[in-house]
Design goal:
Blueprint lengths: L7 H14 L5 H22 L3 H15 L7 H5 L1
């Protein structure tokens, strides 16, 4: 049997596609699907020793550093 391998980035893309394609599903069905996904992610994170709250906070910090600012920084103006 072949082993399916998906990167986390690919999984994120699949989830986005899932969300878009299921927008017409009954809310209860979508809620049940996402609930199962959340439980699976929590189980895998626990198995791998990943603290999801810390990981989420780190993601927010990382994204905020890469987000464009409305007002250019001095370094950007000098460049």
């Amino acid at each position: 049997m072949s082993k399916l391998s998906v990167t986390l980035g690919e999984l994120k893309d699949l989830l986005l596609r899932f969300s878009w394609e299921r927008r017409d599903w009954p809310r209860e069905d979508v809620q049940r699907e996402f609930g199962a996904l959340v439980l699976y992610i929590m189980q895998q994170a626990d198995r791998l020793g990943v603290d999801l709250v810390t990981a989420g906070e780190a993601c927010v910090v990382h994204q905020s550093k890469n987000a464009p600012t409305l007002v250019p920084t001095k370094r950007e103006l000098d460049a």
